[in-house]
Amino acid sequence: VNQYLHELDIDENVDHPWIPGIGREYTWQMTSDGLISQEYLDKLTHTYEVRAFSDLEINGNVPVHILRGDNYSVTLKGTCDCPDRLDINQIGTKLDINTTARIRNAILQITLPHLHTLKLKHTNNVHIEGFEEDKMAIWAEGRNNRHITASLQVDDLTLHLKGRMNFELIGTGDHLRAKLDSETNLHAGAFVVRNADITAEGSLDIELNVQDTLRQKRSPDVNLELVGSPTILEIQSEDTFEE
């Protein structure tokens, strides 16, 4: 429970044992989930002050959960006790988050009602869930087998993925535009779309679920697995979506 815990003093007359912490004591209670101290858990959560935002950029090695919620919040949850390792700046509706050092044993949790653009650079294990948008764009650049999962309902979704990562996409949409470079793998067999434009180059795997039309431009070493029987057209121009 606590890395500094060496012994547990129990008084048979009470249900809440105390455990010495660093410079203070925490009260613990045995629950169906195990030995819990809400006071200790609260200490492990740091909340940052932010205003309304819909555009997000995260740069640095930190696990991230981005969830749809009615309120705007940015919290760091975990045992690292390192809130000063995040540098947060906001201009208008755009929120920039940068790490000053690698963050271990903690998760950066972000909630907001609507997500329009998301830029990720070298973030570690990102989970995106719950958003229903007319339009969304995600740029992600990574290395060392980063993993991103996104469960979304977006009519017009743009992806630009670069670097060694696995991107898992679940949900529904009308139009998917994706540009993939180098060693990025896109697993979108569970993301059902009507039309898709795909540009891919390098040794990578792509899974798609397209119902009507697939426009593609891919190098010979790209492995494509396709769900559905769409009309397949070859893209002639270089650009398939907005930068």
Which labels suit this protein?
single chain, 243 residues, mainly beta, Pectate Lyase C-like, 1 helix, 18 strands, 2% helix
Written description of the protein model:
The protein has 243 residues and is an all-beta fold. The chain has 2 domains: 43 residues, no CATH class; 189 residues, Pectate Lyase C-like. Helices cover 2% and strands 62% of the residues. Strands 5, 6, 7, 8, 9, 10, 11, 12, 13, 14, 15, 16, 17 and 18 form a 14-stranded mixed beta sheet that branches. About 4% of the residues have low confidence.
Layout: helices, strands, pairs:
Elements: E1 18-20, E2 25-27, E3 29-31, E4 34-36, H1 38-43, E5 45-48, E6 55-59, E7 64-68, E8 73-78, E9 86-91, E10 94-99, E11 106-112, E12 117-121, E13 126-172, E14 175-181, E15 184-201, E16 205-218, E17 223-227, E18 231-234
Parallel strand pairs: 6-10, 6-12, 7-11, 7-13, 12-13, 13-14, 13-15, 14-15, 15-16, 16-17, 16-18
Antiparallel strand pairs: 1-2, 3-4, 5-8, 8-11, 9-10
Beta-strand residue percentage: over 45%
**How many helices does DSSP assign?**
1
Order of helices and strands: EEEEHEEEEEEEEEEEEEE
CATH architecture of the largest domain: 3 Solenoid
Which range best describes the helical content: under 10%, 10-25%, 25-40%, 40-55%, 55-70% or over 70%? under 10%
Write down the overall mean pLDDT.
86
- State the oligomer: single chain
Task: Tell me the total number of β-strands.
Answer: 18
Q: How large, in whole angstroms, is the Cα Rg?
A: 22 Å
Taking pLDDT < 50 over at least 5 consecutive residues as the criterion, the unreliable ranges are: 10-19
Largest sheet: 14 strands, mixed
List the domain count as a whole number: 2
